Amino acid sequence: MNVNLQNYANLKICAAVSGGRDSMALLHYLHAHAAEYNITLTALNCDHGIRGEASVRDSAFVAEYCKKNGIPLSRHVADAKFTDEGGARAWRFGCYLKEAEHCDCVATAHHLNDNAETVLFNLARGSALAGMEGITDQDFTAPAKRPFKLIRPLIACTRAEIDEYIAANGIPYVDDDTNFETNYTRNKIRHNVLPALEEAVPGAARAIYRFSRLAAEDEEYFERQVMPLISRREPYGDYIAHCEERVIFRRAAVKIIADGHQKKDYTSEQLERLYALQFAENGKKFEFLGLTAFKEGGRICIADDLLLRCESEGAPYEDFYSGIASAYCGQIARICFEGGADEYVKGGSSAPLKVLRFDGGKIPKSAVVRFMRAGDKFTKFGGGTKKLGDYFTDKKIPVRLRRSIPLLCDGSDVLIIFGVEISEKVKTDGGTRQPMCAVAADYMKI
């Protein structure tokens, strides 16, 4: 079994082990070559409980093997019962992220035949080139909040080569009975389609692997073209700069929809409508998949609908002042003594922050933090009262953001627009004895 571990030298690797042939071959190979490549090896077992007692048996088998061979093992047992592989897969990924606290990468035992199944499956579904890259190493630095990857050391090894390695080294394993059922789409490809293709075209799986690596190289190139177009201001929206190259724009949109918002059921028609939205008037929008895309300032903004429909009865000002509340409906909205804002600003944010000074002694006890309502009015800093909507228009605050900006209000009187401005009524002056700060995202720069 020819495995290239050079790219993984000097890393802390955690092998995901179910007890099956593939994962046991992976664990054995990594353990046998750990010293050669200065790899610090641990193992991970996830018992999702889908197969009942069989899952418990397999986990016990893995634990015994790791103990016998001196391999540190982390075990995760699901609290919830999963009814399908999709739910179990998402839970396993969460387990991988937990391991990121003490390793550089989690290794899974996907191999060349798995890769061929994935490419064929995606091709049959009508996937674009992105689906043809098959199974590759993936960078999950963002969700892990530290450098972290999901790696596949066996991806260039065939099913037969792994079986030969298992036999030659006398490696024990357990069988997952669900792998032999043909009522799952992927298992039908595994047991029916791929063998027939190999019979018709010997070496088909390996040829598909070579094709998928070429597709992956193409994807890397397109990724470099796409990333400069994208800017993110979570959770306020993701932006795509104007781009008349249809193929590049569509890939940028997929990057945001699939990777950023985890929406996998997008269609070519939706991507085409997003592309066309670039040429519409500012303010035009398109709703799809629980998202809304806006034409805004010459670019496209895609935002989650939950952001656009923020509703709340309001949180008492005293809760923020006393520290009971520190954020509001997912939005940054903090109130602190003057000088205490630095810790929030230094804490960082995906959006720029704005600190507004005001006189806490001028805030009525009846004041609450809430979102925009009909009839709200605002006395501008420097004088003059306007309807809040008209003030937002003057400040060129996008319509999509207006109902997600926290406000400090007394009735319909808006005293502070977090991240924008304070009212003339709460400004500091020579008689101020309670200088306070309101910290929020800078909605003028989002």
Which helices and strands appear, and what pairs or packs with what?
Blueprint: E1 12-16, H1 21-33, E2 40-47, H2 53-69, E3 73-77, H3 85-99, E4 105-107, H4 112-124, E5 138-139, H5 141-144, E6 149-151, H6 159-169, H7 185-200, H8 204-226, E7 230-232, E8 238-240, H9 246-260, H10 268-277, E9 285-288, E10 291-296, E11 299-304, H11 305-308, E12 315-316, H12 317-322, E13 327-328, E14 331-337, H13 341-346, E15 353-359, E16 368-370, E17 377-379, E18 385-387, H14 388-394, H15 399-402, E19 407-410, E20 413-417, E21 421-422, E22 435-441
Parallel strand pairs: 1-2, 1-4, 2-3, 4-6, 17-20
Antiparallel strand pairs: 5-6, 7-8, 8-11, 9-10, 10-11, 12-16, 13-14, 14-22, 15-22, 16-19, 17-18, 19-20, 20-21
Helix pairs in contact: 1-6, 4-7, 4-8, 8-9, 9-10
Task: Describe the protein.
The chain has 446 residues and is of the alpha+beta class. The protein folds into three domains: 6-222, Rossmann fold, CATH 3.40.50.620; 233-308, no CATH class; 315-441, Phenylalanyl-trna Synthetase, Chain B, domain 3 (Phenylalanyl-tRNA Synthetase, Chain B, domain 3, 3-Layer(bba) Sandwich). Helix content is 37%, strand content 21%. The protein has helices spanning 21-33, 53-69, 85-99, 112-124, 141-144, 159-169, 185-200, 204-226, 246-260, 268-277, 305-308, 317-322, 341-346, 388-394, 399-402, and strands at residues 12-16, 40-47, 73-77, 105-107, 138-139, 149-151, 230-232, 238-240, 285-288, 291-296, 299-304, 315-316, 327-328, 331-337, 353-359, 368-370, 377-379, 385-387, 407-410, 413-417, 421-422, 435-441. The strands form four sheets. Strands 12, 16, 17, 18, 19, 20 and 21 form a seven-stranded mixed β-sheet that branches. Strand 17 (377-379) and strand 18 form a beta hairpin. It is elongated. The model has no long low-confidence stretch (mean pLDDT 87).
